[in-house]
Amino acid sequence: MAEKTYAGPIKSVRVDALVVLKICKHASSAHPQTVTGQLLGMDVDGELQITNSFPFPTVDTPAQDDKHDKENASSGNVAPRSKVNAYYQQEMVRCLRDMNVDASSAGWYQSASLGNFLNASFIENQYHYQSQHNERTVALVHDTARSTAGALSLRAFRLTPAFMAAQKEGKFTIESLQKHNLTYKDMLVELPLTIYNSHLLTSLLHQLDSPTPAPLNALSLSQPMPLAPNFDALDLSIDQYLEKNCDLLLESIETHYSEVNNQQYYQRQLAREQTKIAGWQAKRKSENALRASAKQPLLPEDEWQRLFKLPQEPSRLETLLNSRQIEQYSKQIDGFTASVSAKMFAVNQGLPRTEL
Amino acid sequence: MADNGSYLHLARPLPTVPIPHVHATTAPLNVTIHTQALFSILDHSLRRNLDQERVIGTLLGVRSDDGTEVEIRNCFGVGHNESQEQVEVDMDYHKAMLALHLKANPREVLVGWYATSPELNTFSALIQNFYASNGEGTFPHPAVHLTISTEPGQDISIKTYISSAVGVNPERMADNCLFVPVPHEIRYAEAEKSGLELIAGAKNTESRTAPVMTDIGALEKAVEDVLGMLERVSTYVNSVLKDETPASAAIGKFLLNTLSLAPKVNATEVERMFNSHIQDVLMVSYLANTIRTQIDLSGKLATYNFGPKDPILAAAAAAATTAPVASK
């Protein structure tokens, strides 16, 4: 293993074209199920170069029931940490190393639909990678649904050191959040991502772009060229996309609401217990005062710790994740409405009209 | 890029041993290559050992039921040693890797092999016969052999072949075969379009890199592309009108068809639709932003409640939480 000469944080991520296509293919073949896979690459002076990847086989679920969509989705989610895959991963890396592929782990990738990837298993996977495998790993998220509607959506994430520390302690109480100064905004850090082509690939792309002149006929004109510009971004179907986004947003708000309720329930419970304890202590004190005046031995005053049990504070992790998820949806909607309103104004102005 | 050359579809030789249940066919074979496989081969070719002239690997993909369409979707490299007299292919590696691949992509099957040099030699025949063999190979379907030249400074040429057995006796047939060229087509999946576009965007930059685009950026690019194409078409039409370029009936018809696609719509109808939609869109955007603010506020309040920054609240909180303990 080469010695690391650079110890600073990872500043950017460079993804090979091959990896982009591999992820796209894997994600779309299983859409809308979540899929995961391994990334291989190298860390060069703070730039993580991802040069290869391979998909994880999905963990077998007992029954492929469509009703349990959520369960199916989570089976893909746990793949990076499962025991079966650890073996698969090892074997694959060993095989790829024989073919001179960079064999060090650079992280993992996951597919998502409309940005719905922020959940506990995403965090746990990335925590697993950053703590067990190699600190310098990233999670790439490929958004299948968004990519078909326009620009490719591929993002690189890492957990922040503050969050790593909090996750290590394993509890997300208000106190620990304050200690680490953690809000939902600084759980994850997104890294800038660039796509990289090899010389050979550049050559191929240029060649694909300028095909040998073929006999011109109506048929050859209607066939799309491999590298024709992509006009999906000009698509005007808005309702469907907005509707889905709103549904997801509403769902998240519901979760948020129930989390808040949990928290309030805990607060009330805590307050009730505390008044009970206070009452008990006051009683014990007056009793002791009586005993003291009667020259009797005093009763212990810290028995309340045995008698009363303070409720457990619910974990704030879910709330944090959910807040971050809502923020993500909102930003997504914001971005989408920005482009869609531009498109709509353009169409409105540009349409030829008949007077009627 | 479809392979536009003309092909003579020779009747493919039938397998020498008749097999039950499988109906052997001599129909022409069409090969579709997915871009991912091509990229993978090029990557493998870049990573070859210094002294190696070419690398080979296994092609995976799907085959249609009647065996006349082969789609090459995936591939992996296999190590091999070539010298003047003999060739050694790492068969154990091939088997292990195939098993691993099939685990993750159960739908893909072995369809053939590739080599990164355009020439076909006796070793090619040997390897081809292995891949087409009964048992581990693609038998009874023909194995597809794909060659891709990766000579720097020259065009990358891609060729696909299938083979038929040649030889006077069975011993000679094992290390001989006749490669029959078959047409191929490079295709990409719908889902890869946005990815490919981005990759193609990097081909003209010096650094061969491209940042990931935002949705607005993609829109801008698409609009610019459309403008560029319109420009090209109008220049062409103008030059035809001025008798500078020969006119083409095919292009003319195509343009006419395209122009007739422009919808004619009622003005008031459009206005109504536009207004109702833009209102929806703006409303959703407004609500989304409000929700974001609310969540932000909620998060802040949750951690701020007992925060030490506010002296009064902190004192109150301290008094509340430590009260039972203090009175101990």
UniProtKB/TrEMBL annotation, chain A:
Keyword Protein biosynthesis: yes
Domain (MPN) ranges: 13-163
Protein name: Eukaryotic translation initiation factor 3 subunit H
One GO term describing the cellular component: eukaryotic 48S preinitiation complex
GO annotation terms (biological process): formation of cytoplasmic translation initiation complex
An example Gene Ontology molecular-function term: metallopeptidase activity
Localization in the cell: Cytoplasm
UniProt KW keywords: Cytoplasm, Initiation factor, Protein biosynthesis
UniProt function note: Component of the eukaryotic translation initiation factor 3 (eIF-3) complex, which is involved in protein synthesis of a specialized repertoire of mRNAs and, together with other initiation factors, stimulates binding of mRNA and methionyl-tRNAi to the 40S ribosome. The eIF-3 complex specifically targets and initiates translation of a subset of mRNAs involved in cell proliferation.
Main location: cytoplasm
SMART domains, alphabetized: JAB_MPN (SM00232)
Gene3D superfamilies in the cross-refs: Cytidine Deaminase, domain 2 (3.40.140.10)
Family named by the database record: Belongs to the eIF-3 subunit H family.
Keyword Lyase included in the entry's annotation: no
From TrEMBL, chain B:
Molecular function in Gene Ontology: metallopeptidase activity; translation initiation factor activity; translation initiation factor binding
Occurrences of domain MPN (ranges): 31-167
Listed InterPro entries: eIF3f, EIF3F/CSN6-like_C, JAMM/MPN+_dom, MPN
Source organism, top-level taxon: Eukaryota
Keyword set includes Ribonucleoprotein: no
Pfam hit, one: JAB
GO terms under cellular component: eukaryotic 43S preinitiation complex; eukaryotic 48S preinitiation complex; eukaryotic translation initiation factor 3 complex, eIF3m
Subcellular location: Cytoplasm
One example of a Gene Ontology biological process annotation: formation of cytoplasmic translation initiation complex
PROSITE patterns the record matches: MPN
Oligomeric form and interacting partners: Component of the eukaryotic translation initiation factor 3 (eIF-3) complex.
Family classification: Belongs to the eIF-3 subunit F family.
Function: Component of the eukaryotic translation initiation factor 3 (eIF-3) complex, which is involved in protein synthesis of a specialized repertoire of mRNAs and, together with other initiation factors, stimulates binding of mRNA and methionyl-tRNAi to the 40S ribosome. The eIF-3 complex specifically targets and initiates translation of a subset of mRNAs involved in cell proliferation.
Protein name: Eukaryotic translation initiation factor 3 subunit F
Source organism: Pyronema omphalodes (strain CBS 100304)
Lineage, opening ranks: Eukaryota, Fungi, Dikarya, Ascomycota, Pezizomycotina
